[in-house]
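We emphasize that the prediction below concerns an isolated chain of 344 residues; any contacts that depend on oligomerization or on bound cofactors are therefore not represented. The input was used exactly as deposited, without trimming of termini.
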Amino acid sequence: MSGVWTGRTRRRGLWVGVATSALLAVAAVASMSAAAAVPLAAAATPTTPPAAYPNPGVITGDTGAHDPSIVKTPAGGYLAAYTGDNLLLKTSSDRRAFRNAGAVFPGGAAWTLPYTGGGRNLWAPDISYRNGRYHLYYSASTFGSNHSAIFLATSTTGASGSWTSQGLVIESNTADDYNAIDPNLVVDAQGRWFLSFGSFWSGIKLIALNPATGKRSDGTIRAIAGRNGGAIEAPYIFRHGSYYYLWVSFDLCCRGASSTYRIMVGRSAGVTGPYVDRNGTAMTAGGGTQLLATHGGIHGPGHQAVFADTDSEVLVYHYYANSGAAYLGINLIGYDQAGWPFVY
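Result of the prediction step, given as a token string:
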């Protein structure tokens, strides 16, 4: 599969450079005019998409991030998790000012080393709060390999060092036609738990989970999206109204300002699919409606997550500045008259 992976110098080694280059790019990002940036809150949700892709909403503080996921905490603040050594955390009280909050596993995660080649860089965490605990699904792998694994950790506080490993959820190996990375937990309207995941190879998959354990409840692996081996990853399923929306990233991340990541979406009446785009094309046949792509100094937006807040549904993602550094992006989500999402 090396031909598939030539562009995927992926996420992980990036963070050594991001921590340094982020400092160099802060001035450039801060110089975006307030008039050009989208506010983080709005009085009423619009139903007409903007004429052009919006810039990320203005955020401050520690804004470097890659593969971000954010959850609203019971106290009303925000907890973000993102790719980095032993997984990294940020907190915010207002969804605008963020500060670094340490590592999920400050003492390391020895159980992941067989999949990371001994490295500490862990990928693409998915964070949520359910049944009185934070649930964190995350992946361990190496560049270009599908010898990968998704693990689960839980915590009652979400603080650095408070997380308990709940073990392996699913793994993939070279004999498999899928890649067990980029997890996302979704709970459907009937209270059933599912985990979507996948990257390149045969595409995006879905497995059922036991809500009591957060682990697999059966051996079925469902295919829900794919590009015939092409660049698709980072699934996120979010229910709005009577539809489940499958958000994915097409094309290539991790090339700094040359990244071609773009955010796509399809929807289905059921969580297991079939998902189709606005034109009716099945996402298993490469379908997807584009929501956000490179524009101006915002390069390769992707690895998106969605959560509901008091003012709006919120899109979270990373993007690259002209310097090549990766930053946290946040925008709000609206829906047009046909029920298709857009960002503003």
